[in-house]
Design goal:
alpha/beta, about 45% helix, globular
Length: about 300
């Protein structure tokens, strides 16, 4: 009899605890957000990730009803920003950029020993899928990708090819192109797109390997010229530029840019953020601004984004 009473009390206490925790969680979600939400970009100001995220959150903050200031924390190829993000309070008030494949490479590289893994973060949504491009200064002697490959075979290791981050998506593309074409470039890694742009325009680097968003404004100014896109189809804005697959090098590369937070953000808060970001990506003014910057929007909700990253 005594055991039955004890069991009954345990069941009642467990039920009451679940009710209280559930009520607190729902109440928190109903109050969220009640203060500014800080968003951290892993790279320096002025790059395509930074520009795209600033455009997104300028729209999203009107939807969510709180300021969403953007800060920059470049360094160590994204390790500093990811470590800061991992250590933040999981309350939905500190979010950060999450870049694929760059972040995956950081975690897989045995030399880095970064101290974080995929399960240390909450994945909220993807915003942009920005294809890789190969381009040159507008007066470059390389008129086609074929010209570039031919010259690289004649001058092994002499042609300088700049990338915007060590072991980022553009660096991986450059390495893979070398392998498939049987050539050797002098690959130079920069901290971000801004110094690489300056190096190419100044004649210090011959080839720019980056993303459409990094380069479209400079191409539109007539200062850069595209040789190829590393995408599954031709760009709607540049239909005369072939894909690398068309040219005999079946390479597809891109920077998928999303939003993440530390592990443990309540699912109710994730749902609020996801809904606000989705609505922002559907805003006509936001779409127009992103198209102007050459940043293709590709929204993925939390579940789809986690599947994509996996």
């Amino acid at each position: 009899m005594r055991e039955q009473k004890r069991l009954r009390w345990l069941v009642l206490i467990s039920f009451f605890s679940m009710f209280v925790i559930g009520s607190v969680s729902i109440g928190w979600a109903q109050q969220y957000p009640n203060k500014p939400i800080t968003f951290q970009v892993h790279s320096a100001a002025g790059g395509s990730t930074d520009v795209g995220m600033r455009l997104l959150f300028a729209t999203a903050e009107k939807i969510i009803g709180q300021p969403m200031p953007v800060t920059n924390k470049p360094g160590a190829g994204g390790v500093l920003a990811a470590t800061t993000l991992m250590r933040a309070r999981p309350d939905g008030y500190f979010l950060g950029s999450w870049i694929s494949p760059t972040n995956a490479v950081l975690m897989l590289d045995p030399e880095r020993k970064v101290g974080f893994g995929p399960s240390d973060f909450t994945y909220i949504a993807n915003h942009v899928y920005d294809p890789n491009v190969i381009c040159v200064k507008s007066d470059s002697p390389f008129k086609t990708l074929g010209d570039l490959i031919k010259a690289a075979k004649e001058q092994p290791g002499k042609i300088s090819m700049g990338v915007t981050a060590k072991l980022g998506d553009d660096h991986l593309l450059a390495i893979d192109l070398q392998r498939r074409a049987g050539v050797k470039f002098n690959i130079i890694s920069m901290d971000s797109s801004a110094p690489l742009r300056a190096a190419v325009l100044g004649g210090h680097v011959q080839i720019y390997v980056g993303n459409q968003g990094d380069t479209q404004p400079t191409v539109k100014e007539g200062l850069f010229r595209y040789l190829a896109f590393a995408d599954t189809k031709r760009s709607p804005q540049f239909k005369n530029v072939p894909t690398m697959t068309e040219l005999g090098y079946p390479l597809v590369g891109a920077s998928a840019r999303g939003i993440a937070g530390p592990k443990g953000i309540p699912k109710e808060v994730v749902a609020i953020l996801e809904a606000a970001i989705k609505k922002a990506t559907e805003d006509p003014e936001h779409i127009e601004k992103m198209e102007k910057m050459g940043l293709p929007i590709e929204f993925l909700g939390s579940k789809e984004y986690m599947e994509f990253l996996a």
